[in-house]
Amino acid sequence: MSDIQQLIAKIRAFRDARDWEQFHNSKDLAVALSIEASELLELFLWKGNEDANPDKLKNELADVLMYALLLADKHGLDVKQIVEDKMKLNNEKYPVEKAKGTAKKYNEL
Ligand SMILES: [Mg+2]
């Protein structure tokens, strides 16, 4: 079992011990992920770019990752594979020779 699979198994065990799977439909997992991403954003609100509290940053980032993993698990997705597939697409959209050193979107390169 990979590290990611072990992590998902731990999150699942936490969820199942509390009988929370009944609440974890795809829509609500996506909503929860977005809310946690907003909580992550809030840590930067009215502060400098690098001034978020490191402990709070870890906690909110973990919340985002856990909901993302639960959503992937719900859909039977292989997290490593979908990230690798997306990286391949990103490599095609952002070839180094065009994208290096610029923050432009792919359609503006
Ligand atoms: Mg949170």
From TrEMBL:
GO terms for biological process: nucleoside triphosphate catabolic process. InterPro entries: dCTP_Pyrophosphatase, DCTPP. Pfam families: MazG-like. GO terms for molecular function: nucleoside triphosphate diphosphatase activity. Keywords: Hydrolase. Coiled coil: none annotated. PANTHER family: DCTP PYROPHOSPHATASE 1 (PTHR46523). This is NTP pyrophosphatase (Non-canonical NTP hydrolase). It comes from Sphingobacterium detergens. The lineage of its organism: Bacteria, Pseudomonadati, Bacteroidota, Sphingobacteriia, Sphingobacteriales.
